[in-house]
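Write out the bound-state structure for heme C.
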Amino acid sequence: MNLSYKKIQSKTVALVMAAGLVFSIVSCNKNPQSPGVEFMPDMYRGPASEPYSVNEFYSDSLSSRKPVPGTISQGSIPNSPFGVNNTIYAYPNTNEGYEAAGNFLHNPIANTIENTEQGKDLYIKFCQHCHGETGDGNGSIVANGKFPNPGSYWSKAGLTDGKMFHSMNYGKGLMGSHASQLDKEERWKLVLYVQSLIAKNGPKTEAAPADTIGKK
Ligand code: HEC
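---
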């Protein structure tokens, strides 16, 4: 009795092992792209449906869902300096977009010493090698002849905050876009710092002292 029970047990073990062996051999497939035997294909293969085709699952029979009420469409807040959720920039990369950004975009960042200092820190890392420490366009790669002088900031007439931001966003001429390296807040801090460079190093148009007028 005891013996036969053991016999049965060892036969069962052998059977399970054989089944496992057969299974592991059968489940191998030479084609690496093949998923092998699929037991429940509809669990992981959803039925594909074309966008805007008929889908009876929804009450309006449309396969694509409409945006939820209150959705703000991309680019619909043109005067927002941050765009929507700090991601969307409303002005297109065209001359009109550049001019519109120049007219309507204003720096939302407060002109404080702290913000300007943060702008300076970014400027040293991202801009100085081209534009130079003072903003005159004599950065290190310009000085060693590897890059043409971009010109001083103050040589660019009508360079408003919005235009600066726009140029950083898309790039301009030989200057690449900095949108992927700098978020919008950082770019506005850079605008603050560039403005401070212009105020400090740009050409001074001081009125002549009153007592010198008319003399000479
Ligand atoms: C690879 C060199 C290079 C780097 C790096 C660079 N710039 Fe420029 N930048 C230029 C050149 C060249 C121009 C002139 C583009 C033109 O007018 O054709 C320019 C133009 C500008 C202008 C004037 C844009 C306008 O609308 O006329 C601003 C402002 C400016 N850069 C700011 C920055 C700031 C801020 C950074 C750092 C985030 C930066 N640049 C990084 C090369 C560079």
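---
The mean pLDDT is 84.
Residues 126-127, 130-131, 147, 150, 153, 156, 159, 163-164, 167-168, 172-175, 178, 190, 194 surround heme C (CB under 6 Å).
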